[in-house]
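Supplementary Text 2. Reproducibility record for the structural model of the 130-residue chain.

All settings were left at their defaults, and a single model was retained for analysis rather than an ensemble. We include the record here because the model underlies the residue-level annotations in Supplementary Table 4.
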Amino acid sequence: MLWSSTSLIHHDLLAYGEDASASWIVECSEDELVRVCSVAEWLLYFGPQTASGSSMILAKACALAAVYVHEGTPRALVRSRRSTKSAQTADDSPGRRPNYVVQEEAPLGYGVGIDARDFWGQPDSPICEA
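Retained model, structure tokens:
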């Protein structure tokens, strides 16, 4: 499963203009962080593709996943592209990473609901366990 830190996701959320979710990610529960990583992984494999047919960039997948888990419904990001200005964070710590044992116990597609599959255009994706 995808493994990222709260500080990296926080930085990506700020770059996409998602300030509320950026504040939330640093305080989210262990289960919520595992769900964010799981949904981001699902987006990389089954989410929208670029015009060339490749998957979206990791930063966007993590930001979309965090907004989805935080708000409970899928939607587009405030900005479609990351800000060209470096998002400044007050804390340069590496942040938390998901607990490996908890993450390994989570099923593939953990946290990906029917609403997400429908919104991102993959209603028949094979890996989806909400």
